[in-house]
Amino acid sequence: MSLFDDAVLVLKSYEGQEELRQTYLDHLASHPDGMWKACGDGHITASALVIDPSRGRVLLTLHKKLRMWLQMGGHCEPADATLEAAALREGTEESGIAGLTLLPGGPVRLDRHHTPCAWHLDVQYAALAPAGAVEAISEESLDLRWFAYDEVAAVADDSVVRLLDATRARM
User: Fold this and answer.
1) Which of 1, 23, 2 is nearest to 123 (CA)?
2) 12 pLDDT band (50/70/90 cuts)?
3) Which H helix or E strand runs over 127?
4) What percent of the chain has pLDDT over 90?
5) In DSSP terms, which residues pair with 50 in a beta bridge?
6) Whole-angstrom Cα distance, residue 34 to residue 48?
């Protein structure tokens, strides 16, 4: 199965955000290249909110280009077999933490937002950090920092706050 086919299946089985979910499916139906950065009309991206439930905190990255505190995430790559694999790869690369595991149950949220390259149709997962996890800043970040749940709204935008709320509701 291709990454495109996996994305369609994941989105068809995703429950909630019906109108936005349909927007994603319509985009893929009309853009065979809709998984890739080269699709100028927008593309599917995958992200992972790295969370440490035992300590009540999340790891956010200060994105180098956007200069905003965000969850880990970004463009799908040809080597990604599934959206889950893409989210886990992005989470691992940008956090520097080995051994992340995705919260079961598929995507936590969908979020469509405009970036300098195009519209991102982000499929958002949550990744659990293993005990004793040590983060390492990647070249895509200006900073990487753990925030207590109640600190996130003061540093991040509403999309990150909604993702954290949905993640906590699922746990």
Assistant:
1) 23
2) very high
3) strand 119-128
4) 91
5) 59, 127
6) 20
